[in-house]
Write a structure and sequence with these properties.
By secondary structure, the chain is an alpha/beta fold. It has helices spanning 31-37, 39-48, 77-80, 95-100, 102-125, 150-153, 170-176, 183-202, 218-236, 250-262, 265-271, 286-299, and strands spanning 16-18, 51-52, 133-137, 140-143, 146-149, 156-158, 163-166.
Length: 311
């Protein structure tokens, strides 16, 4: 079960490729503390912050060695020019390809997300939907938020250039951390990153502040709302005559739930050999993330995802 023949063969044009293909150095000290204490994370703030959808990072220095260039937090013009070109996704031709290859699956998920949000956002929030750019990259690349090694950071959204950046090998690391090895786990993470674009469009992404963590922090509220919006997409993606997905199964939804549970702040703290400390949370506990994804999927409305900053 997955994508069906409603998926147009030109879906390979939904994204582009970027990066130099080299994963660079780095190695695995304490991923949670790298995320929370990184001087880069403190430097960027909103609106320049990279919204990292998966909570944990994979290189020493935090945020995958993200740097802002010589004097600009968004990187120099020369750095930003490094990510160019239409990419090469020639193998992404059919819906079967989208069900077989992770990069094709991400591109097809982007098309599905566009279809859902271009209806949902104006109908329920009174805001027009403009699709974010989508870059599938490896190694060092430049973004509107600075230079990052996406092989180390994993997926993220940059509000400065309104682009979702994805890394396919990330999902192998996600599996190693206890996330699902199912196809829908890839789609859930993609939907979570697109949800940050929805928040940026609505002007609520600014409430995320990694410098002020905590179980009830604005950062956690923004992240769990993105999980909820991912659930809203899942509730709609298999509906209607032109739906790109076959009816979702309980097993597929469980894949998203297992992944959300694996990347909760408390789960990451435990896997890092730390005591659970809610005062350091920026993405939400496993229970919070699962609960909000499930709420979005069950209720299927943006209103179900409302957070205190929406009042």
């Amino acid at each position: 079960m997955g994508f069906n023949d409603n998926l147009n063969n030109n879906y390979s044009q939904r994204g582009s490729s970027g990066g130099n293909g080299r994963s660079g150095g780095g190695g695995g000290t304490n991923p949670l503390m790298m995320m929370l204490m990184s001087s880069v994370a403190r430097k960027f703030g909103i609106p320049g912050v990279l919204i990292v959808g998966a909570i944990f990072l994979f290189a020493s220095g935090g945020l995958g060695g993200l740097t802002g260039g010589s004097s600009s937090m968004y990187g120099t013009e020369a750095q930003q020019d490094q990510v160019t070109g239409a990419g090469n996704f020639d193998h992404c031709q059919t819906y079967e390809d989208a069900n077989r290859y992770d990069d094709c699956r991400i591109l097809a998920t982007g098309v599905s997300l566009d279809m859902v949000w271009e209806k949902k956002l104006p109908a329920e929030a009174g805001v027009s939907y403009t699709a974010p750019d989508l870059v599938l990259g490896e190694g060092q690349l430049s973004t509107g938020c600075g230079t990052a090694n996406i092989s180390q950071t994993g997926p993220f959204y940059c509000p400065a250039d309104q682009t979702v950046y994805m890394s396919v090998p990330f999902f192998d690391r996600l599996k190693a951390m206890g996330g699902s090895n199912g196809d829908f786990a890839v789609m859930y993470v993609t939907a979570h990153e697109f949800a940050h674009h929805i928040q940026q469009t609505m002007g609520t992404l600014k409430y995320s502040n990694y410098q002020d963590p905590g179980a009830d922090s604005g950062a956690v509220q923004v992240e769990v709302q993105a999980d909820c919006y991912a659930g809203v997409w899942a509730s709609q993606a298999d509906k209607g005559e032109n739906a790109l997905l076959d009816p979702l199964t309980e097993s597929q939804i469980q894949q998203a739930i297992d992944t959300a549970r694996a990347i909760g702040d408390d789960a990451i703290q435990r896997s890092s050999g730390q005591e659970v400390n809610p005062d350091l949370w920026t993405h939400g506990s496993s229970e919070q993330r699962v609960s909000w994804f499930t709420k979005g999927y069950t209720e299927g409305t943006m209103a179900a995802c409302a957070q205190p900053f929406n009042s």
